[in-house]
Amino acid sequence: MLTLCGWWLALLLSPVVKARDQIAFKAPHRPNVQTFSLSHGIHLGGHAYPGLHLERQFSGKDRIDVRSSDEAPYDVSNLVLRSTPQLVYKPLIKGGTPAYDRARRALAQARRQGKEHEIEVMGWDIVTVQGPDTSDWETLNSLGKMSSNAYTQPKDTSGWIDPGMHWNLSNSFGWEQDGLRGHVFATPDNATVVVALKGTSAGLVGGGGNTGRNDKLNDNLLFSCCCARVDWSWATVCDCFAGAYKCNQDCVEQALTDKSVYFPLATDLYNNVTKIYPNSQIWLTGHSLGGSLASLLSITFGTPCVTFEAPGDLMAAKRLHLPLPPALPSSPDPSNPSGVATTHVFHTADPIPEGVCTGSLASCALAGFALESKCHTGQQVVYDTVGELGWSVDIRTHSIGQVIDKLLRPDWDIQTEEVHLDSERSFWRSFWPGWGRRGNGSEGDHKQSQGVPKPVTEHDCVDCFKWSFGNGPDFTPKRKPTPAA
């Protein structure tokens, strides 16, 4: 059983694209300060276009075209990031590479036999790599702009190509609304590349874009306690509810594996990047859903990652049976996988990463989202916008633009202006109990900025504390689970 998880991971680690021209690695030198620009785009089809794989190289004109989008007004042609040594745990891969479905069935059988511990015990290669310096505000600002840029694409779609020549894009309509997209930023010598994954494209919850329907399905599969069962009136995304805050554990794990295409797509996208940039150091970033997917990739591949306003990823990682490394020696909670090479950046006025956008009358629920997870892997950089700036808890502060403009700056905690929110305030305030409530902070009281908050690790965090999960007779789903399409 020990080799089974290794088989599965080895398959994820193997590139899925055909051999083609690779981007040259021009120099081995890795300076502490590096400059990045938008280099590549990768789009993988999802539910409607399975198997679709498109790539695009960005020229100077394309970068201007992307920057002119309403959703991404930031210049991404010359972004500065600083690096620092970072300790990462990389899972040791053993065994062969059987088909994914075969490995998945064996994992499910082992779970039913109570042998999870035999699968999850693995060896680790502990290495020191260069990672983004999360104590530097300019580095976080640049990564935030990359995450914002992933929501957009040039208005001219003719630049997308299919390396495998399997699709005729001139006769294909709607592929832009389906699947997962990532933007790749590279240094001039291609020594380091940053992959920014697109987050949720949906109104108040997301950052804009055209894949909102599929994003919502995957959000609800990844981050809800039990198939987005908020109350009796909800149409759930899977049939694992066993009544009265009870959920069938095997069922909800199987549903996540079968119905959520985004994590397999994310692993394919990562493998494509490693094929294009075979000698480059890779970092990951993303906002919201894109951040959580980036973190799951960080767990799988041992890659440095920085997320922004991402929902808790620990529950999804456990349900996917990803290899969670041990806690850091400095962690106050030995059970928390703080050894994951991810830093989650978020603020206290955003209810989504805080895990409080829950309940049938919460603004997330009114938008059709069940974002109930709150526990994160790795470390967290938490901006106390409620205490320091007096912000109200408000879903509209989830926007990556608010984070970039108001927080990822050297003087974030000595601002005097009110945070700007749109004109929908009067309508949504009646549904979100936190709106209109201000924290105890006093804006402008600080004479000197405290800079980027120090990273912390979560301890004693529990997801879905009201729920019970199991597989016995008491956890029989009320409805027979629907087979995956």
From TrEMBL:
Q: Which GO terms describe its molecular function?
A: phospholipase activity; triacylglycerol lipase activity
Q: Name one GO biological process term.
A: piecemeal microautophagy of the nucleus
The record gives the membrane topology as: Single-pass type II membrane protein
Any idea of its EC number? 3.1.1.3
**Location(s) in or outside the cell:** Endosome, Multivesicular body membrane; Prevacuolar compartment membrane
Main location class: membrane
> Subunit details for this protein?
Binds to both phosphatidylinositol (PI) and phosphatidylinositol 3,5-bisphosphate (PIP2).
What is the name of the protein in this document?
A: triacylglycerol lipase
* Protein species of origin: Mixia osmundae (strain CBS 9802 / IAM 14324 / JCM 22182 / KY 12970)
